[in-house]
Amino acid sequence: xxxxxxxxxxxxxxxxxxxxxxxxxxxxxxxxxxxxxxxxxxxxxxxxxxxxxxxxxxxxxxxxxxxxxxxxxxxxxxxxxxxxxxxxxxxxxxxxxxxxxxxxxx
Length: 106
Known about the structure:
Helix content: 40-55%
Largest sheet: 3 strands, antiparallel
CATH superfamily of the domain at 29-82: Nucleoid-associated protein YbaB-like domain
Number of strands: 3
CATH class of the domain at 29-82: Alpha Beta
Radius of gyration: 20 Å
Strand content: 15-25%
Strand order of the largest sheet: 1-2-3
Shape: rod-shaped
CATH architecture of the domain at 29-82: 2-Layer Sandwich
């Protein structure tokens, strides 16, 4: 009886591992664009790597404002990546008992 329980748990763990790998691959392929006031857009990968920065000419007149807009646009993209990551990983771990507040290390 105990052995069947362990075998079933091992099978569930293997399935979850496969789903996690697929979710990680989807996340790695993901690109999102964050923006600030329509003047600055940044494209970030699912691994939070900055891929592209687009700056409207009008934003270049004020260096301090431009710096703030870049930070804001990156923060917007970062939040989108975090939301996508949470969604993908929750789908991968569906059905597996996870402790409350458990956060995966990626």
